[in-house]
Amino acid sequence: MRNLTISWIILMFAVLFIGVSVWFTHNLSRQFADIEQQRMEVWAEATRQLVLADENTDITLFSSIIEANTTIPVYMTDADYHVILTRNVQEPKQNVEAFYQRKIAKLRESQTPIEVKVSPGVTQYIFYEESNLLRRLRIFPWVQMFVVLSFVALLVTYIITSYRNEQNRVWVGLTKETAHQLGTPISSLNGWLELLRARYPDDDLLPDMATDINRLQLVAERFSRIGSAPTLQPTDISQVVGQSYAYMRTRISGKVQIELKIDEPAMPDAYTAMADAPLLAWVVENLIKNSVDAMNGRGWIGLHLQKNANAIILDVTDTGKGIERKRYKQVFRPGYTTKSRGWGLGLSLCKRIIEQYHCGEIFVHQSVVSKGTTFRVVLRQQ
After folding, report:
1. Three-class HEC string of 224-267
2. pTM (2 d.p.)
3. From residue 369, how far is each of 70, 143, 160, 314, 318 by CA, in Å?
């Protein structure tokens, strides 16, 4: 949240800076445009005086004014708009006449020419274009905007990436430490189990104890896998879902009805995909637990596994309290929970396992408040 606030503050300052810059540069370019127009009017008058001058007239001032224009492209035409003089114009090597015709036609559409009456009944026209300096000045704020926004984008990307890397380090550290902490008591429990088997070989409770210890070992293994790169292998997804369903069915309230539907595959290995079975089973179990919590221990849960094109789709539907549309993405954020107890890591963990480790998708497929929700998991097949 803090990083997002910083990103918004940086963006607001960038927008403010760009706005002030564009406004200032626009005003400056408009003043430059006015100055160039005034210069052209003076240049036109100097040209007229130079044309009307006789052998006794000192033309030094007029010539210096005309020669002083080294930046503004100027076109002088006759009354029929044929070019008779140009200055600061780079002519093409071919089709010069056509070039000037197009240029004058375009200038006539955009500006009113300056009239120069060189003699009674004889009028010439002066057209001009913006100087390169003025063009660059107009473009400058947009270049500046691009540079500033690029810098802001890089900075925000760096902040977000740093935040995600920090989250990853926390995840890795937490999972490794959890797996490590579980290792010692699990080893101790295994020792006690072997001792009890030796002393009470016929005790009916020992198999259940062994099952629970094996479950603890599986939990520790899952945490260790979260903290390291997963090993993806060809896996029968229907088998993973079926085993998770069977495990959870005996461990949830009898007031919750849970059903599993697996569409009949059109071909063998239809439900085979590259996956990490223990982690994928964790996702299914977390989704079922999330549904149980959403129904307050009473209702219906349906698991539907189906094949679609090059993907395997698992829908987990419940008749719980539902999710508002605006919270569809929030539910996957670490720490988000509607329960009075809990860390809000279940769905976040599912998202990490599916999207980062399996390159799949997990999202709220549909939800109606007070009626229920369907979470969808999509696993791509090569």
Report:
1. HHHCCCCCCEEEEHHHHHHHHHHHHHCCCCCCEEEEEEECCCCC
2. 0.56
3. 73, 49, 32, 22, 12
Instruction: Find the domain containing 130 and state its range.
Output: 2-135
Dist CA 72 CA 87 (whole Å): 8
Residue 269's region, left for phi above 0, alpha for psi from -120 to 50, else beta, is left
* Residue 179 CB partners (closer than 8 Å, separation 6+): 220, 221, 223, 224, 227
Tokens 């026209």 belong to which residue?
125
Tell me what pLDDT residue 335 has.
64
Residue 229: how many other CB atoms lie within 10 Å = 8
- Provide the pLDDT confidence category of residue 228 given band limits of 50, 70 and 90: low
- Residue 8 resides in a domain: yes
Task: Compute the distance between CA of residue 61 and CA of residue 68 in angstroms, rounded to an integer.
Answer: 10
Task: Specify if 250 maps to a domain.
Answer: yes
Q: Are 283 and 345 in contact (CB under 8 A)?
A: no
Q: What are phi and psi of 254, to 5 degrees?
A: -70, -10
Residue at token pair 């088997």: 197
Q: What is the pLDDT of residue 244?
A: 93
Residue with tokens 């009626």: 371
